[in-house]
Amino acid sequence: TDPSKTTLRLAADPAGIGRAAELLRRGGLVAFPTETVYGLGADAASAEAVAGVYAAKGRPRFNPLIAHVADLDAARRQGSFGADALALARAFWPGPLTLVVPAAPGCTLSDLARAGLDSVALRVPAHPVALALIAAAGRPVAAPSANRSGRISPTAADHVHADLDGRIDAVLDGGATAVGVESTILSCLGEPTLLRPGGTTRGAIEAVLGRSLADAAPGGPAIAPGMLLSHYAPRAVVRLDAEALRPGEAGLDFGGRFAGQGGAVLDLSPRRDLAEAAANLFGFLRRLDEDLGGTGAIAVAPIPPSGLGEAIRDRLARAAAQR
Ligand code: TXA
Ligand code: MG
User: Where in the chain is the domain with CATH 3.90.870.10?
Assistant: First the structure.
């Protein structure tokens, strides 16, 4: 992409959404809020527009994109839903669950958006601005998170600007996102398999299916492409499950463990609420990383692995991964 585009900042009102939809229909790149994180949207049927997404993010082209659709009917025009996928879509859409299903015969998603696979990743986002944009565009919108590849996902329009200003056509500003971690990705190509923990908990999915979920074998063929890469990386070193701060470390706290230990500390949730912690996670990581000026270390207090804790711990483990 032309690195000297003028990136419009659009209010999330009917005029702004209309302008954004027009840009999408013409093959433009528009960042928009969802309930999880901001997405970088493009017309999913246009290989040229989708190529622009990969270029703006610096994203490897073997990593396919999620197509965002208005409702289950629109999803079923793109993918073939078996009984499990149908039950899950009915239970959780609109919401933070992405279903990987076989491409339908009439699928219009470009090969590039699918990275050449014969499956598709679909979701109906639970955000009024996202749904209004998809409806106004009148087509599926391919959207990865609106950050440079490998960087922390954006939960506010300012984060999108910091990463992509001058590389995309517009950002629709819908305020801070509510969930704060990306959607759960579930493969329904065979026995339902968790590819990425996220905003819909394993327990909630298992309750609908009436059985336990398989996990993707590390390195196995069912893993979501791109999920093995170091991801969500701040520039600082990240130390997990820290019992106490070491000299010079910034702290990403949970439940007040680092209280009174000095240093720069942000508490994800003083009252140990995992939904609050998920909503704060990426913004706090960005702030601590900026405060440290690209050096030093962030110590992270232990986060329980239950419920949304599984997704939070997954993102933190990626942030801490060697790179
Ligand atoms: O919450 C979210 O899911 C956000 C918002 C914007 O909707 N989107 C998001 O997209 O996180 P992205 O591109 O960062 O992650 C999409 C993941 C990738 O890891 C990709 O490998 C996987 O979905 N994926 C897409 N199509 C797939 C397919 N056919 N089979 C397996 N994995 C797939
Ligand atoms: Mg992402």
Answer: 8-215
pLDDT band at 1 (very low <50, low <70, confident <90, very high): very low
Question: Would you identify the CATH topology of the domain 237-320?
Answer: Rossmann fold (3.40.50)
For residue 37 and ligand 1, the question of a CB distance below 6 A is answered with: yes
Residue whose CA lies nearest to ligand 1 atom number 5: 39
Per-residue pLDDT tens digits for 156-196: 999 999 999 999 999 999 999 999 999 999 999 999 999 99
Q: How many CA atoms lie within 13 A of 151 on its CB side?
A: 21
- C-alpha distances out from residue 42 to 73, 117, 286, Å: 20, 19, 26
Q: How far is the CA of 147 from the centre of ligand 2 (A)?
A: 7
Cα(65) to centroid(ligand 1), Å: 5
- Classify domain 8-215 at the CATH topology level: DHBP synthase (3.90.870)
50 C-alpha to ligand 1 centroid (Å): 14
With H, G, I as helix, E, B as strand and everything else as coil, classify residue 9.
strand
For residue 96, the one-letter residue type is P
Closest ligand 1 atom to the C-alpha of 38? 6
Residue 225 CA, chain-centre distance (Å), reads: 14
**Confidence bin at 222 (pLDDT 50/70/90):** very low
pLDDT at 234: 86
**Residue 284: which H helix or E strand, with range?**
helix 274-292
Give the strands of the sheet with 297-300, arranged side by side. Answer: 237-239, 297-300, 250-253, 265-267
pTM: 0.94
**Dihedral over alpha carbons 70, 232, 307, 144 (to 10 degrees):** 10
- Of 114, 91, 100, 94, nearest in space to 44 by CA: 114
Where exactly does CATH 3.40.50.11030 map onto the chain? Answer: 237-320
Does the beta carbon of 124 sit less than 6 angstroms from any atom of ligand 1? no
